[in-house]
């Protein structure tokens, strides 16, 4: 069954208040609900239909009167009360079994902790309700549970009552003063430890901050708490947004389908995004924790105070909130590096999504299972759209517009149109054409040609945009594309930009061009010599840009561009050219020349002491195999891997002294710190180690072994482990054994142990994954563990996943099939590993198609999996 955006209708009833009463039990959990309902004046009379997913109804009362069996209907998805008055109270009691809930939606258990995940449609697995975001109600929740096993009882809002029930049980009652949709409901109960802190808001409100974790993890919460306080302050200072309750709670659980959830006042997190100590978490983990903590906190305004009218608007909260967390993070870490990382995710994963059968718009027009739309397109491309809006409006107007949106829609469920309207009013700008970005799927391609007119001292640049067809969208309309542009003279100095027709000019060295047509030409004047163009600075639009630069120009930009993003991008494009040409007999020679150019550029980066070390590490990074695969008509799995390895080795051989010197100079001193300086130093050091390791000598393998053994933090340790596991020789096995012993049953460290092996480029990888599937530490019910082993293998190890005999595909399919009855959402996610199947050679294509057909022909498929697989085969 497909749901369409165009079919949206407003809810027929309001729910003024919701009183929930939970009796948590080991076998049965009883949920009593009392809803105060009111028919909307303009809605037609008719039955009351509530969502409820396989609930066992024990009792139903309407205005206190038990309903007779012929007064209501029940099925697997809903409860229908045939006749109801204008306003009434409906009481139901249902029984659910959280301990058997392996799908991790609704109320479930993670170890000994009761917890919830209601977004998007999990609340219907808890009780009968209008499980849609535009029904907002005030919730009061009482939790009753055994006192000893479940000392902690949490829900949204403020705790207004606690009772000892005298029979070994106790209860707590929580009241949330803000009306909210049910997807923001949360409940947690267990034997948890708590780290406490305080925050005073800008207006002087005292907020209790509490992070709940299993007691042995209490020493891993300091970073998350610090991040929370920074995020709270940042939102006040940047957007003028203040927290609105007296308490803010975060709970970490080990079993979680996604990253985290912004439930009002009670965030529930995948423990991966809370717990960290230098010995257990990498720099990237620390940074991700800071980002996700901030993300969920920022949702309190962009998501909770103003929510979404329906799930088609998901990017309204997610795109905006990702944009906000990226902005926050870039204020904490190296701004240049952060932008490169964000773009890398987009270009590697979102661009891939756009080229395949699952391509969809930031605001899709239909879906079968909304869980399948928590995608890089909705989140990360959505964030890029917000970023373009900021570029178009300018930062101050943009902030004013966002505040206006939040003011006008506070307490409401809004749409993308509402958001754009508020921005338009703040900026007095036409965003009509811009809006197409939300409905048009696919990655636009912008081709650039330029012509220097010596006699007129002018440069004409022609921009041509084209967006390839995506499923269901054959023809595309031109988009409003902001292009941030700069120009360099032949000495690498910035030039002043002057557009013809704008003689007054602004005398700036950078400006934003607003491209709006399929093809348009702009003329820049007062250019005594042909300039070097730097286009789409900071990746000002999520497009694929096709330029005409020579390799010399790319090397020039890599050296001189004042825009850090474009410096990096020039290097990436040069490296890409070399790797892809290297695989091709006829262009080998060009590749060899370009390689010398790249080596010379890298040499000067390695010698440049003034450079931000984190940025240097990025500039020295070769494009990853997934990104390279996207640049080919038909993916050459082995060619990409070998080509990239050859370039790595060539650079290692030619620059070994420099890599060695920088490696030595970048050793950490003193205590571990996550300050950008220290993070940058570690990443540069480990980048050098990556090259040195490619020398494949006794000495280099000793260096890796020493790095591992002398490591005092996870960043250095895992970097060395990864290299050793990829190498021939016994070191890898030895270090894996050591790593496993050190993990001491820490699930997050064990995940890394699995992931490192799943990522190995060694031919034995597939066999070792099969062994790992029956390892005593492998837990198929735990999403983090499944993602570490199967997700890493199928998404981050193209060389071994796409092994030509198809055995990698068979393994993935088997895991998907086994997982679907257990956790459909995870099965749907894993199936995405096949989405690029049409882009491979015939043998691989057929082998993947066969696995997809095998899955689709199963007698019982979850909606999650069936939607994804059916679309892939269409
Ligand atoms: N709103 C959450 C976040 O991005 C994600 C929850 C997604 N859950 C799901 N079952 N699809 O912060
Ligand atoms: Zn979010």
TrEMBL record:
<protein>
    <recommendedName>
        <fullName>Aminopeptidase N</fullName>
        <ecNumber>3.4.11.2</ecNumber>
    </recommendedName>
</protein>
<dbReference type="InterPro" id="IPR037144">
    <property type="entry name" value="Peptidase_M1_pepN_C_sf"/>
</dbReference>
<dbReference type="Pfam" id="PF17900">
    <property type="entry name" value="Peptidase_M1_N"/>
</dbReference>
<dbReference type="Pfam" id="PF17432">
    <property type="entry name" value="DUF3458_C"/>
</dbReference>
<dbReference type="InterPro" id="IPR014782">
    <property type="entry name" value="Peptidase_M1_dom"/>
</dbReference>
<dbReference type="InterPro" id="IPR001930">
    <property type="entry name" value="Peptidase_M1"/>
</dbReference>
<comment type="function">
    <text>Aminopeptidase N is involved in the degradation of intracellular peptides generated by protein breakdown during normal growth as well as in response to nutrient starvation.</text>
</comment>
<keyword id="KW-0862">Zinc</keyword>
<keyword id="KW-0479">Metal-binding</keyword>
<comment type="similarity">
    <text>Belongs to the peptidase M1 family.</text>
</comment>
<dbReference type="InterPro" id="IPR042097">
    <property type="entry name" value="Aminopeptidase_N-like_N_sf"/>
</dbReference>
<dbReference type="GO" id="GO:0006508">
    <property type="term" value="P:proteolysis"/>
</dbReference>
<dbReference type="GO" id="GO:0008237">
    <property type="term" value="F:metallopeptidase activity"/>
</dbReference>
<feature type="domain" description="Peptidase M1 membrane alanine aminopeptidase">
    <location>
        <begin position="224"/>
        <end position="437"/>
    </location>
</feature>
<keyword id="KW-0378">Hydrolase</keyword>
<dbReference type="Pfam" id="PF11940">
    <property type="entry name" value="DUF3458"/>
</dbReference>
<dbReference type="Pfam" id="PF01433">
    <property type="entry name" value="Peptidase_M1"/>
</dbReference>
<feature type="domain" description="Peptidase M1 alanyl aminopeptidase Ig-like fold">
    <location>
        <begin position="442"/>
        <end position="545"/>
    </location>
</feature>
<dbReference type="InterPro" id="IPR027268">
    <property type="entry name" value="Peptidase_M4/M1_CTD_sf"/>
</dbReference>
<dbReference type="InterPro" id="IPR045357">
    <property type="entry name" value="Aminopeptidase_N-like_N"/>
</dbReference>
<keyword id="KW-0031">Aminopeptidase</keyword>
<keyword id="KW-0645">Protease</keyword>
<feature type="domain" description="Aminopeptidase N-like N-terminal">
    <location>
        <begin position="101"/>
        <end position="184"/>
    </location>
</feature>
<dbReference type="InterPro" id="IPR012779">
    <property type="entry name" value="Peptidase_M1_pepN"/>
</dbReference>
<dbReference type="InterPro" id="IPR038438">
    <property type="entry name" value="PepN_Ig-like_sf"/>
</dbReference>
<dbReference type="GO" id="GO:0008270">
    <property type="term" value="F:zinc ion binding"/>
</dbReference>
<keyword id="KW-0482">Metalloprotease</keyword>
<dbReference type="InterPro" id="IPR035414">
    <property type="entry name" value="Peptidase_M1_pepN_Ig-like"/>
</dbReference>
<dbReference type="GO" id="GO:0016285">
    <property type="term" value="F:alanyl aminopeptidase activity"/>
</dbReference>
<feature type="domain" description="Peptidase M1 alanyl aminopeptidase C-terminal">
    <location>
        <begin position="552"/>
        <end position="874"/>
    </location>
</feature>
<dbReference type="InterPro" id="IPR024601">
    <property type="entry name" value="Peptidase_M1_pepN_C"/>
</dbReference>
């Amino acid at each position: 069954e497909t749901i369409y955006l165009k079919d949206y209708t407003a809810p027929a009833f309001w729910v003024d208040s919701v009183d929930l009463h939970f009796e948590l039990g080991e076998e049965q959990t009883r949920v009593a609900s009392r809803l105060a309902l009111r028919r909307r004046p303009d809605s037609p009379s008719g039955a009351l239909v509530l969502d409820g997913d396989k609930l066992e109804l024990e009792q139903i009362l309407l205005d206190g009167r038990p309903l007779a069996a012929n007064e209501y209907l029940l099925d697997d998805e809903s409860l229908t009360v045939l006749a109801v008055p204008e306003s009434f109270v409906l009481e139901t009691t249902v029984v659910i079994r959280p301990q058997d809930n392996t799908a991790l939606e609704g109320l479930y258990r993670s170890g000994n902790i009761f917890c919830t995940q209601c977004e998007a449609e999990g609340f219907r697995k808890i009780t009968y309700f209008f499980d849609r975001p535009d029904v907002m109600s005030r919730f009061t929740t009482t939790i009753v549970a055994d006192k000893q096993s479940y000392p902690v009882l949490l829900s949204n809002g403020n705790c207004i009552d606690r009772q000892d029930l005298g029979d070994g049980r106790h209860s707590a009652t929580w009241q949330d003063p803000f009306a909210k949709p049910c997807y923001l409901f949360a409940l947690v109960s267990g034997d948890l430890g708590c780290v406490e802190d305080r925050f005073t808001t800008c207006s002087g409100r005292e907020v209790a901050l509490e992070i709940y974790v299993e007691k042995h993890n209490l020493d891993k919460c300091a970073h998350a708490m610090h991040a929370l306080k920074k995020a709270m302050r940042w939102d006040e200072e940047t957007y003028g947004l203040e927290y609105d309750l007296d308490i803010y709670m975060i709970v970490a659980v080990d079993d979680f389908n996604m990253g985290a959830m912004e439930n009002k006042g009670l965030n529930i997190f995948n423990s991966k995004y809370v717990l960290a100590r230098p010995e257990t978490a990498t720099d990237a983990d620390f940074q991700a924790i800071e980002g996700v903590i901030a993300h969920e906190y920022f949702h309190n305004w962009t998501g909770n105070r103003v929510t979404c009218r329906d799930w088609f608007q998901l990017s309204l909260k997610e795109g905006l909130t990702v944009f906000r967390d990226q902005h926050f993070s870039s204020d904490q870490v190296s701004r240049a590096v952060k932008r490169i990382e964000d773009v890398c995710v987009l270009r590697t994963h979102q661009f891939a999504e756009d080229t395949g059968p699952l391509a969809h718009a930031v605001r899709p027009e239909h879906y079968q299972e909304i869980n399948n739309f928590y995608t890089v397109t909705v989140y990360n491309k959505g964030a890029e759209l917000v970023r373009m809006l900021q570029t178009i409006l300018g930062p101050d107007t943009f902030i004013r517009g966002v505040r206006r949106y939040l003011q006008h829609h506070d307490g409401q469920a809004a749409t993308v149109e509402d958001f754009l309207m508020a921005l338009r009013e703040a900026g007095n700008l036409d965003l009509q054409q811009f809006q197409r970005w939300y409905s048009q799927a696919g990655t636009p391609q912008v081709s650039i040609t330029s012509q220097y007119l010596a006699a007129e001292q002018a440069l004409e640049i022609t921009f041509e945009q084209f967006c390839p067809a995506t499923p269901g969208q054959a023809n595309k309309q031109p988009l409003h594309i902001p292009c941030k542009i700069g120009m360099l003279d032949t000495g690498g100095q910035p030039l002043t930009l002057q557009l013809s027709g704008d003689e007054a000019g602004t005398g700036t060295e950078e400006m934003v061009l607003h491209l709006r047509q399929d093809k348009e030409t702009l003329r820049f004047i007062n250019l005594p010599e042909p300039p070097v163009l730097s286009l789409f600075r900071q990746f000002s639009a999520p497009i694929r840009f096709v330029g005409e630069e020579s390799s010399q120009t790319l090397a020039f930009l890599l050296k001189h561009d004042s825009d850090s993003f474009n410096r990096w991008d020039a290097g990436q494009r040069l490296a890409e050219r070399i790797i892809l040409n290297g695989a091709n007999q006829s262009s080998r020679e060009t590749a060899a020349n370009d390689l010398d150019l790249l080596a010379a550029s890298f040499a000067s980066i390695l010698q440049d002491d003034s450079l931000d070390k984190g940025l240097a590490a990025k500039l020295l990074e070769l494009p990853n195999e997934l990104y390279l695969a996207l640049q080919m008509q038909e993916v050459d799995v082995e060619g990409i891997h070998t080509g990239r390895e050859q370039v790595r080795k060539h650079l290692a051989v030619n620059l070994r002294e420099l890599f060695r010197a920088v490696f030595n100079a970048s050793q950490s001193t003193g205590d571990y710190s996550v300050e950008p300086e220290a993070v940058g130093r570690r990443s540069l050091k480990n980048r050098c180690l990556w090259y040195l390791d490619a020398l494949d000598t006794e000495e280099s393998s000793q260096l890796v072994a020493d790095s591992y053994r002398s490591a005092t933090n996870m960043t250095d340790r895992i970097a060395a482990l990864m290299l050793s596991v990829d190498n021939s020789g016994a070191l890898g096995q030895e270090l894996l054994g050591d790593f496993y012993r050190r993990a001491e049953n820490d699930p997050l460290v064990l995940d890394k142990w699995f992931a490192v092996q799943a990522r190995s480029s060694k031919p034995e990888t597939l066999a070792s994954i099969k062994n790992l599937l029956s390892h005593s530490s492998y837990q198929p019910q735990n999403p983090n563990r499944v993602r570490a082993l199967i997700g890493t293998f199928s998404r981050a190890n193209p060389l071994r996943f796409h092994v030509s005999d198809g055995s990698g595909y068979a393994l993935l399919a088997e895991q998907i099939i086994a997982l679907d009855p257990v956790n459909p959402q995870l099965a749907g996610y894993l199936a995405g590993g096949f989405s690029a199947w049409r882009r491979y050679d015939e043998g691989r294509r057929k082998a993947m198609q066969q696995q997809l057909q095998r899955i689709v022909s199963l007698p019982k498929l979850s909606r999650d999996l069936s939607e994804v697989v059916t679309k892939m085969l269409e």
